[in-house]
Amino acid sequence: MGVKQDIEFDDSGLIASLNYVRNSSEENLQKLVSAAGNRLAYAHHSWSSPDERMTLEEFWTTQLSKVSWSPELEQNINTVKTYLLKQERTKWLTEVLRYLPNEHSFNTIVYLNLGYDDIVFGENVALNLNSPKFSIDKREAVYYLIHELAHAGYVRYHGLPQLENFSTNGELLDVVKFLTHLEGMGVLSAFRLRLSEGGLRDNDYKVLLNEKERIRRIDQYFELFDELNNNPHQKIEEYPSRILGKMSGRETRLWYITGCHMAQEIEKRLGRETLRELVRLGSQAFFETYLESAQN
Ligand SMILES: [Zn+2]
User: What is the predicted pLDDT for the residue at 2?
Assistant: First the structure.
């Protein structure tokens, strides 16, 4: 059967959060903040928003202040959870492993959480089972599991970069390249299953399947890319929220769209094995390969 894949699910954070939104006692808060999945989400938040300093308790009370308990809430979450856990493992694992280096072996916990985005941190991932997109279409939970596991696979080879203290455009560009490669592989990994099931509600895929809009986003991406690339030594004085906002923000999603496009082009021109191996080689090689193969 080949390589061992160690992927476990842990829903203790989800259960603790549901108990807390039903009854916000101090005791329930303490159980909530001691659950490993909830600690992972906080660690991710501290990494991704270095400008917002919050304690673990402040972070979770803020996150869950937006959620109010109802029987429907609990039922929706349980429906998504049951659906996700009853899926054949090979169904989603095959898709993830398709785009990771040969012989890749997972050692990952999938935390089921409530109230914080789908994320990767270290080699573990967390899914927000209260995400509206999952209750609209349960299959999205499987697609996002694939997406986050693609990230967990990627960070085996390259740790997440620091999202603060960029001192020059060139340093910021390295982070942009990293996240373009990371997100592009995440988006691509779920694409095949989505296409085969017609699960294409997610906006990234709507853009990718619309040739005109796809090109428009890629052009926007490379405008920002060139801005950094043409002046690599220029100092960065404040947090580059304009650029990072356009790269990751809901409206534009530039590094998701462009990263997936680049990966698809590399697969088309040079084959899937090259693309998989680039995960091991990293984002500089991913960009070089894309740009070189575009000239031939
Ligand atoms: Zn992602």
Answer: 74
